[in-house]
Design goal:
Length: 205
Amino acid sequence: MGGRRTAAPPPTPKGSDRRRALLDAAERILIADGHTQLSMRAVAAAADVRLGHLQYYFPARADLIGAVLNRALERSLHRLAELTGSPEGAPLDGEPAQLVRGILAEQDEPELTRLFAEIWALAARDDAIADAVRAFYRDYTAQVAAFLRRHDPGLSDRVCQARAETFVMLVEGAALFRSGIASERSDDTDAELMRMAARLLAPEV
């Protein structure tokens, strides 16, 4: 169950491909078989490596899940940067509606939605994985808060943080409904979601 996460060794150029293959294997298991089948031994077998090899890169399951989440966030930020024309590695820019469309478009990918649903289920039962999920959403919220500050410099840090957290809650909760897990999807609801989410990111007038 819970426990403190152990720092994995820093990646080297030679180890990057191996690390990527291990993360790919973990994602495949989560998406295809569900969180109940995700064990360190299962990931090692899927990647065709020894358990000790996996543990060299990810000493504990929480470290592995944290890396899966971090990679998902990096992929999302990369796509959003491309969509909004933001320089690589720079804070996200662009129009609020454009950013919201990009985020909601990712929810149209069934595999990504299943991946997060399985990770949320794991986090409900494992304190260490819950810590990794919280770290993921802190980073996500920080990116949204930075976007708000760029577009409305007059906002206080407190208001930026509150609006960023509200935005993340809104769009992430919407994923359960838009995916069909919690409800049937509706064009009218999608339009209202788009309007409300963009309003949270728009400068105050």
